[in-house]
Amino acid sequence: MIKIFSSDNCHFSNSIFFIGFIYVFFSASIFASSSIHGYVKEAQSGQALEGVNVYLSGTLWGSSTNSMGEYIINNIPSGSYEIVVSMIGYETVSKIVRLPKESLIRIDFAIEEIDIVLDSIVISEERPEDWYENLELFKEKFIGKTKFADACRLTNETELIFQVNNNILTAKAINPLFIDNDALGYNIECHLVYFNLNLESNQCTYLIKTKFTEYSKFSESDSLRFLENRREAYEGSIRHLMRSLIKDNWDDNGFWLTIIKYTSSKFKQFRRLNFDQEFAFNKIGNYYSIQFDNRLLVHYKGGRITTGFSLLYDEVIIDEYGYPNTVPAFSIFGDWSKYGVSKLLPRFVFFD
Questions:
Q1: Residue 322, domain member (yes or no)
Q2: What does pTM read for this prediction?
Q3: Which run of H or E residues covers position 275?
Q4: CA-to-CA distance for 339 and 2, rounded, in angstroms?
Q5: CA nearest 24: which of 229, 290, 247?
Q6: In tens digits, what is the pLDDT along the chain, a chain of 352 residues?
Q7: Beta bridge partners of 2
Q8: CATH code at position 48
Q9: Count of domains in the chain?
Q10: Boundaries of domain holding 264
């Protein structure tokens, strides 16, 4: 699950042929050891449901239920995940699960059919002109404003329903949204939990649950292009920063970190001289604790990326791979807030 807080108004505006795919699975398979299985049934009748998508949000791992309603997802690294159950015509449900090493966990689900009523929104075949205007605003934030954005296609955009109240644009979708990212080589199934855009301040928040699937057909040149673009999407990202903090090589990796402390509508900046006092990063077993006040300003490789984030809680815990145990965990601003799904990578795709 991913939550994005963004503001463009902020001054400091996440064989060779198979090489890209080998890298992805190699990154994960080193740690893979556990499985999740269970059954999905219809809530009212208790009947087993076939063809239900069951996946771990933000990953390449998922399965579909068989005629008995059974699913199984194998070879999962230990850690915290959100398991999502999705089927067109039914409510999407999810559950947070912590998966120990070399474990087999059973999780069953009962899902209900969707009642097609969305806060008295009228669904119509004909769309007014402002629907198309709102779609462009939505795509700018959701798809993002990066060099990869033009290579992303929202293939079922007609699922979207927009409302504007008190200068806040909201977007809803009854069924999952589907995105083809031709720059990174992923098909993305996306459950949109909510999307809110302040039309006055340009601040946007949205929450999504995603299932990634590798492109099944591609050329040798496409494979190399995917690999190069995935590396570019990873480098300088918040995931890259978290892993650099864990390895204590953020400085060597090109990150320049500054705490922004606001005082009397102005701000003071603290560099590494006061890093230990202003930023607490501590190892606790296989986890890491992050604590700091105000905002952390991040420059990457001489300002190629200028961005930053703050914590949504007094303390955020991340695992040994750099993923937070609680989602959402960060409020981001600057360049990261412009990434959208155009630079979104599945978990365990690393380039360090």
A1: yes
A2: 0.84
A3: helix 275-278
A4: 12
A5: 229
A6: 444 444 443 333 333 333 334 444 444 445 558 999 999 999 999 999 999 999 999 999 999 999 999 999 999 998 889 999 999 889 999 999 988 889 999 999 999 998 765 444 555 567 888 999 999 999 999 999 999 999 999 999 999 999 999 999 999 998 999 999 999 999 999 999 999 999 999 999 999 999 999 999 889 999 999 999 999 999 999 999 999 999 999 999 999 988 877 655 555 555 553 566 778 899 999 899 999 888 898 999 988 999 999 999 999 999 989 999 888 899 999 999 999 999 999 999 989 8
A7: 208
A8: 2.60.40.10
A9: 3
A10: 238-343
Provide the token pair at 247.
């390895």
For 33, residues 6+ apart whose C-beta sits below 8 A from its C-beta are: 75, 76, 77, 78, 101, 102, 103
| Secondary structure class of 324 (helix, strand, coil) | strand
Q: Which tokens belong to 135? A: 């779609």
* Cα 306 from Cα 11, distance rounded (Å): 10
Rounded CA separation 212/342 (Å):
13
CA–CA separation, 80 and 283 (whole Å)? 17
- Which of 94, 111, 128 finishes a domain? 111
Q: Which amino acid is at 209?
A: K
What are the φ and ψ backbone dihedral angles of 10, each rounded to 5 degrees?
-65, 140
Structure tokens at 165: 């109240």
